[in-house]
Design brief:
Length: 153
C-alpha cells in the first residue's frame, strides 16, 4: 500500500503497484498517480480534473511502476533513474529497429551489444509498448508482474 496516494482516475487508494506518469509535468510537487486497474491505466485525465498539469494525461504517456513506497525525498532519484532507463531502452529499440542487425563496419552491431529486446518470461521478440526493468538494467517483459521499478515505454 502506498500511504496517502490515491489514483487520479478512480480516486481509490493505490494498494498494489503505483504507476507514476513521467510525461505529465504538474506545476506542483504532486505526481500523476494511477493504480494498476486496467481501466485506470488507459484513462485520460483532463486539466479540469487536475488543473496543476501542463497537459492532459492521455494513453501513450510513459510511466514507471513502483512496487514499494516512494518517499517525497526519493522522488527526484527515482525520476532520474527512470529517465536514464528510458533513454537506454529507446536506444536499444532504435538500434534494433534501424539496423536489424546490420554490420556497423567494425565487426559488431548495436544489436549484438545490447541484444534483441526479448521478453524475460516468454523469450519472444518485443515491440513497443513494453516494460523495461530499471533495476536489472536490461530485462524486458510483456507484462508488469516482475521487477520492482519498471518503466513502460
Amino acid at each position: 500500500m502506498h500511504r496517502g496516494i490515491e489514483c487520479d482516475n478512480c480516486g481509490g487508494h493505490v494498494l498494489g503497484s503505483r504507476m507514476v506518469c513521467m510525461t505529465c509535468a504538474p506545476a506542483s510537487v504532486d505526481t500523476l498517480d494511477l493504480c494498476n486497474k486496467p481501466e485506470c491505466l488507459v484513462a485520460t485525465i483532463s486539466l479540469d480534473e487536475r488543473p496543476d498539469l501542463t497537459t492532459p494525461h492521455v494513453l501513450g504517456h510513459v510511466f514507471y511502476q513502483l512496487r514499494k513506497t516512494m518517499h517525497a525525498r526519493e522522488r527526484q532519484q527515482y525520476y532520474g533513474q527512470a529517465r536514464e532507463a528510458l533513454h537506454r531502452a529507446h536506444a536499444i529499440f532504435d538500434a534494433y529497429e534501424s539496423s536489424s542487425g546490420a554490420d556497423s563496419g567494425d565487426g559488431s552491431t548495436e544489436v549484438e551489444d545490447h541484444g534483441k529486446p526479448t521478453c524475460l518470461g516468454c523469450e519472444e521478440l518485443l515491440t513497443r509498448p513494453c516494460w523495461y526493468c530499471t533495476e536489472c538494467d536490461g530485462e524486458w517483459m510483456r507484462s508488469s508482474r516482475l521487477g520492482i521499478f519498471l518503466i513502460y515505454i
